[in-house]
């Protein structure tokens, strides 16, 4: 399986932060509003833990691990997306000075959307097509507005067209996989209902 298939790294990090923020907001104890940020992982204010319980894994060796279904097509496309994103990131790091500010922030937004989109797809989330489309439309807007992809044409004149082609292909392939997963999941749910 490609790295990250079983984890949505972006989501998993922000979910923990979001829980901390909610607990700090919900507790009635003023000291706990500050204490929560310095306590060990898993500590929660007593009043919040009682009112808003969060399930905990007691036995880390014997619990059902999160493992979404996969397929050869999804595995291949995930690797294509990961390697393409690594190329985009390498280009960014290799050209930070020439891209400059605010370009690096626009580029960073693109990277964030791209990673989020393909982790959603690996999770078989139907919203993956939305995030992939957002990433690719954003990328196409940059190319159409500037006529380039952050100066890449100075290295290889047709490169912006290749990047734009990737955006179109990525949207189509992701859409196909989302539709394929939706049909598979619908058949599986229908089969489960018939068996029950």
**Roughly what is the average pLDDT, rounded to an integer?**
86
The secondary-structure class comes to mainly alpha
Outline type: globular
Q: What proportion of the residues form beta strands (DSSP E)? A: under 5%
In N-to-C order, the SSE pattern is: HHHHHHHH
Name the poorly predicted regions. Answer: 1-7
Termini separation: 32 Å
Measured as a percent range, the helix fraction is 55-70%
Number of helices: 8
Give the beta-strand count.
0
Which sheet architecture does the biggest sheet show? none
Task: Output the radius of gyration.
Answer: 21 Å
Description of the molecule:
The longest helix has 37 residues, at 159-195. The model is unreliable at 1-7 (pLDDT under 50). Helix 4 (72-94) packs antiparallel against helix 6 and helix 6 runs antiparallel to helix 7 (128-146). The chain has helices at residues 9-26, 30-35, 46-51, 72-94, 96-99, 103-122, 128-146, 159-195. Helix content is 68%, strand content 0%. The protein has 196 residues and is mainly α.
Summarize this structure briefly:
This protein has eight helices and no strands. It is mainly α and 196 residues long.
Looking at this protein, list some descriptive labels.
disordered N terminus; globular; 196 residues
